[in-house]
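Quick one: C-alpha coordinates for this chain, please?
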Amino acid sequence: MRTVIAGGHGQIALKLERLLAERGDTPVGLIRRAGQEDDLRAAGAEPVLCDLESATVEQVAEALAGADAAVFAAGAGPGSGAARKDTVDRAAAVLFADAAERAGVRRFVLISAMGAGRAPSPGTAPVFAAYLRAKGEADADLSARKELDWTILRPGGLTDRPGTGQVALGVHTGRGSVPREDVALVVAELLNAPQTVGLTLELIGGDIPADQAVQALPGG
Protein backbone atom coordinates (compact mmCIF):
# COMPACT_ATOMS: atom_id res chain seq x y z
CA MET A 1 0.00 0.00 0.00
CA ARG A 2 1.31 3.43 -0.97
CA THR A 3 0.26 5.97 1.65
CA VAL A 4 0.87 9.70 1.36
CA ILE A 5 1.14 11.49 4.71
CA ALA A 6 0.67 15.24 5.05
CA GLY A 7 2.89 16.67 7.75
CA GLY A 8 5.41 13.95 7.03
CA HIS A 9 8.06 15.26 9.43
CA GLY A 10 5.75 15.47 12.44
CA GLN A 11 6.25 13.25 15.45
CA ILE A 12 3.25 11.03 14.76
CA ALA A 13 3.97 10.94 11.03
CA LEU A 14 7.56 9.77 11.46
CA LYS A 15 6.40 6.95 13.75
CA LEU A 16 3.66 6.02 11.29
CA GLU A 17 6.09 6.01 8.37
CA ARG A 18 8.38 3.66 10.25
CA LEU A 19 5.49 1.29 11.05
CA LEU A 20 4.26 1.25 7.46
CA ALA A 21 7.74 0.66 6.06
CA GLU A 22 8.32 -2.19 8.50
CA ARG A 23 5.20 -4.00 7.30
CA GLY A 24 6.23 -3.63 3.66
CA ASP A 25 4.11 -0.64 2.66
CA THR A 26 5.40 2.44 0.86
CA PRO A 27 4.99 5.58 2.97
CA VAL A 28 5.41 8.97 1.32
CA GLY A 29 5.79 12.04 3.52
CA LEU A 30 4.98 15.58 2.39
CA ILE A 31 7.42 18.03 3.97
CA ARG A 32 7.87 21.81 3.93
CA ARG A 33 11.65 22.01 4.29
CA ALA A 34 14.40 20.42 2.20
CA GLY A 35 16.50 19.68 5.28
CA GLN A 36 13.94 17.15 6.52
CA GLU A 37 14.45 14.51 3.82
CA ASP A 38 17.06 12.47 5.65
CA ASP A 39 14.80 12.00 8.67
CA LEU A 40 12.08 10.60 6.44
CA ARG A 41 14.46 8.31 4.61
CA ALA A 42 15.72 7.01 7.96
CA ALA A 43 12.12 6.15 8.83
CA GLY A 44 11.74 4.27 5.54
CA ALA A 45 9.65 6.93 3.81
CA GLU A 46 9.92 8.70 0.49
CA PRO A 47 10.11 12.48 1.06
CA VAL A 48 8.26 14.90 -1.21
CA LEU A 49 8.62 18.67 -0.89
CA CYS A 50 5.15 20.19 -0.75
CA ASP A 51 4.08 23.11 1.43
CA LEU A 52 0.34 22.80 1.98
CA GLU A 53 0.11 26.48 2.93
CA SER A 54 1.24 27.60 -0.52
CA ALA A 55 0.65 24.65 -2.88
CA THR A 56 -2.23 24.46 -5.33
CA VAL A 57 -4.68 21.58 -5.34
CA GLU A 58 -3.12 20.42 -8.62
CA GLN A 59 0.35 20.28 -7.08
CA VAL A 60 -0.88 18.28 -4.09
CA ALA A 61 -2.87 15.96 -6.33
CA GLU A 62 0.32 15.27 -8.28
CA ALA A 63 2.01 14.22 -5.03
CA LEU A 64 -0.94 11.92 -4.33
CA ALA A 65 -1.01 10.33 -7.78
CA GLY A 66 -0.90 6.55 -7.61
CA ALA A 67 -1.46 6.38 -3.85
CA ASP A 68 -3.77 3.91 -2.17
CA ALA A 69 -4.42 6.04 0.91
CA ALA A 70 -3.87 9.49 2.37
CA VAL A 71 -3.29 10.52 5.99
CA PHE A 72 -3.54 14.09 7.22
CA ALA A 73 -1.12 14.35 10.14
CA ALA A 74 -0.10 18.01 9.70
CA GLY A 75 -0.49 20.66 12.35
CA ALA A 76 0.58 24.22 13.00
CA GLY A 77 2.36 23.00 16.12
CA PRO A 78 3.08 24.58 19.50
CA GLY A 79 4.04 28.21 19.49
CA SER A 80 1.94 29.06 16.44
CA GLY A 81 -0.83 31.61 16.62
CA ALA A 82 -4.51 31.45 15.78
CA ALA A 83 -3.92 32.43 12.15
CA ARG A 84 -1.77 29.35 11.46
CA LYS A 85 -4.22 27.09 13.25
CA ASP A 86 -6.62 28.11 10.51
CA THR A 87 -4.22 27.91 7.58
CA VAL A 88 -2.78 24.51 8.58
CA ASP A 89 -5.23 22.66 10.81
CA ARG A 90 -8.26 23.68 8.72
CA ALA A 91 -7.30 24.99 5.28
CA ALA A 92 -4.47 22.53 4.61
CA ALA A 93 -6.70 19.62 5.62
CA VAL A 94 -9.40 20.82 3.21
CA LEU A 95 -6.81 21.25 0.44
CA PHE A 96 -5.42 17.77 1.06
CA ALA A 97 -8.91 16.26 0.84
CA ASP A 98 -9.63 18.21 -2.35
CA ALA A 99 -6.39 16.88 -3.82
CA ALA A 100 -7.17 13.31 -2.78
CA GLU A 101 -10.49 13.52 -4.59
CA ARG A 102 -8.80 14.93 -7.68
CA ALA A 103 -6.15 12.19 -7.62
CA GLY A 104 -8.74 9.45 -7.10
CA VAL A 105 -7.39 8.40 -3.69
CA ARG A 106 -10.42 7.25 -1.73
CA ARG A 107 -9.03 6.04 1.62
CA PHE A 108 -8.43 9.04 3.84
CA VAL A 109 -7.58 9.18 7.55
CA LEU A 110 -7.54 12.53 9.32
CA ILE A 111 -5.84 12.95 12.69
CA SER A 112 -7.94 15.49 14.54
CA ALA A 113 -8.16 16.24 18.26
CA MET A 114 -10.47 15.36 21.12
CA GLY A 115 -12.82 18.27 21.68
CA ALA A 116 -12.90 19.30 18.03
CA GLY A 117 -16.37 20.31 16.93
CA ARG A 118 -17.49 21.25 20.45
CA ALA A 119 -17.62 24.67 22.07
CA PRO A 120 -14.47 25.26 24.15
CA SER A 121 -14.98 25.19 27.89
CA PRO A 122 -14.87 28.52 29.76
CA GLY A 123 -11.34 29.69 30.36
CA THR A 124 -9.85 27.89 27.34
CA ALA A 125 -6.85 29.79 26.01
CA PRO A 126 -7.78 31.69 22.82
CA VAL A 127 -5.14 29.99 20.67
CA PHE A 128 -6.23 26.52 21.82
CA ALA A 129 -9.84 27.47 21.18
CA ALA A 130 -8.82 28.50 17.65
CA TYR A 131 -7.07 25.15 17.25
CA LEU A 132 -10.17 23.19 18.28
CA ARG A 133 -12.35 25.33 16.02
CA ALA A 134 -10.02 24.75 13.05
CA LYS A 135 -9.94 21.00 13.70
CA GLY A 136 -13.73 20.90 14.03
CA GLU A 137 -14.21 22.73 10.74
CA ALA A 138 -11.79 20.38 8.98
CA ASP A 139 -13.65 17.39 10.43
CA ALA A 140 -16.99 18.79 9.27
CA ASP A 141 -15.69 19.37 5.76
CA LEU A 142 -14.33 15.83 5.49
CA SER A 143 -17.40 14.16 6.93
CA ALA A 144 -19.58 15.76 4.24
CA ARG A 145 -17.56 14.29 1.38
CA LYS A 146 -18.98 11.39 -0.62
CA GLU A 147 -15.94 10.74 -2.80
CA LEU A 148 -13.64 9.75 0.08
CA ASP A 149 -13.68 6.70 2.34
CA TRP A 150 -12.79 8.75 5.40
CA THR A 151 -12.11 8.03 9.05
CA ILE A 152 -11.53 10.81 11.59
CA LEU A 153 -9.37 10.01 14.62
CA ARG A 154 -9.53 12.31 17.65
CA PRO A 155 -6.76 11.46 20.13
CA GLY A 156 -6.76 12.76 23.68
CA GLY A 157 -3.82 14.61 25.16
CA LEU A 158 -0.66 13.58 23.31
CA THR A 159 2.39 12.43 25.27
CA ASP A 160 5.93 11.38 24.41
CA ARG A 161 5.82 8.33 26.67
CA PRO A 162 6.70 5.02 25.02
CA GLY A 163 3.69 3.40 23.44
CA THR A 164 2.11 0.42 25.15
CA GLY A 165 0.12 -0.84 22.18
CA GLN A 166 -2.93 -0.84 24.48
CA VAL A 167 -5.69 1.68 23.78
CA ALA A 168 -9.29 2.65 24.28
CA LEU A 169 -10.90 3.45 20.94
CA GLY A 170 -14.50 4.27 20.19
CA VAL A 171 -17.04 6.91 19.27
CA HIS A 172 -16.84 8.14 22.86
CA THR A 173 -14.00 7.17 25.19
CA GLY A 174 -14.00 9.92 27.77
CA ARG A 175 -11.02 12.18 28.25
CA GLY A 176 -7.48 10.95 28.72
CA SER A 177 -4.03 10.94 27.22
CA VAL A 178 -2.30 8.71 24.71
CA PRO A 179 1.32 8.30 23.55
CA ARG A 180 2.01 9.55 20.03
CA GLU A 181 3.47 6.14 19.29
CA ASP A 182 0.10 4.52 19.95
CA VAL A 183 -1.69 7.08 17.79
CA ALA A 184 0.57 6.08 14.90
CA LEU A 185 -0.12 2.41 15.59
CA VAL A 186 -3.88 2.95 15.49
CA VAL A 187 -3.66 4.94 12.25
CA ALA A 188 -1.68 2.12 10.66
CA GLU A 189 -4.43 -0.30 11.67
CA LEU A 190 -7.22 2.00 10.46
CA LEU A 191 -5.79 2.19 6.96
CA ASN A 192 -6.68 -1.47 6.43
CA ALA A 193 -10.00 -1.38 8.30
CA PRO A 194 -12.82 -0.68 5.83
CA GLN A 195 -15.41 -1.10 8.59
CA THR A 196 -14.22 2.21 10.03
CA VAL A 197 -15.13 4.24 6.95
CA GLY A 198 -17.50 7.03 7.96
CA LEU A 199 -16.59 6.89 11.66
CA THR A 200 -15.31 9.67 13.90
CA LEU A 201 -13.38 8.01 16.71
CA GLU A 202 -11.82 9.05 20.00
CA LEU A 203 -8.57 7.50 21.23
CA ILE A 204 -6.89 7.38 24.63
CA GLY A 205 -4.64 4.94 26.43
CA GLY A 206 -6.38 1.77 27.52
CA ASP A 207 -6.06 -1.97 27.94
CA ILE A 208 -7.03 -3.39 24.54
CA PRO A 209 -4.37 -4.17 21.91
CA ALA A 210 -4.63 -1.64 19.08
CA ASP A 211 -5.40 -4.18 16.37
CA GLN A 212 -8.18 -5.75 18.44
CA ALA A 213 -9.61 -2.33 19.29
CA VAL A 214 -9.87 -1.49 15.59
CA GLN A 215 -11.31 -4.88 14.68
CA ALA A 216 -14.00 -4.53 17.35
CA LEU A 217 -15.39 -1.30 15.90
CA PRO A 218 -18.83 -1.38 14.26
CA GLY A 219 -19.10 -0.50 10.64
CA GLY A 220 -19.55 3.10 9.64
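The CA atoms of residues 154 and 202 lie 5 Å apart.
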